[in-house]
Amino acid sequence: MRISIINGPNLNLTGQREPEIYGTQSLESYQRLLTVAFPEMEFTFFQSNIEGNIIDEIHRAGQEADAIVINAGAYSHYSLAIADALRAVAIPAVEVHMSNVYEREPERHHSAIAPACVGVIAGFGLDSYRLAIEALDSMHNA
Ligand code: DQA
């Protein structure tokens, strides 16, 4: 199974920024662990701070992957363009957040992209990504 892991703004600083919320592990080192934990999966890892680049990557994944795991960072809360891109591709996507956005500020309680996803996983730190992969794998094999 080919899974495209897409990360949005500021997630390149995971491990350094607001460690009390997002922990101290870097995204790169966690992604290396994922490739070890799921040797049968073909992952592509993408991160951008630019909305249009994220949209281009969703389009690319629509052609070349079987599923998407997306943490669109703050764009999750208001980007109709990213939601439209997820709807424009035929493959399923899971929205992930490291933090439990529902226990944070009210403006983080809304997701513009959740209606375009098959499910949402939030609040388990970087492990949210593994849970999303497991969920997509089960769906794929059902
Ligand atoms: C986040 C939650 C967002 O509200 C925030 O803007 C982020 C990270 C998370 O993974 O918890 O950048 O997506």
Q: In summary, what is this structure?
A:
This protein is of the alpha/beta class. The protein contains 5 helices and 5 strands, in the order E-H-H-E-H-E-H-E-E-H. It is globular.
Question: Could you walk me through the main structural features you see in this protein, from its secondary elements to its overall organization?
Answer:
This protein is an alpha/beta fold and 142 residues long. The chain contains five helices and five strands. A five-stranded parallel sheet has the order 2-1-3-4-5, sandwiched between helices. Helix 3 (51-64) runs parallel beside helix 4 (80-88). The longest helix has 15 residues, at 127-141. The chain is globular, with a radius of gyration of 14 Å. The model has no long low-confidence stretch (mean pLDDT 98). Bound molecules: 1,3,4-trihydroxy-5-OXO-cyclohexanecarboxylic acid. 1,3,4-trihydroxy-5-OXO-cyclohexanecarboxylic acid is lined by residues 10, 71, 73-74, 76, 97-99, 101, 108.
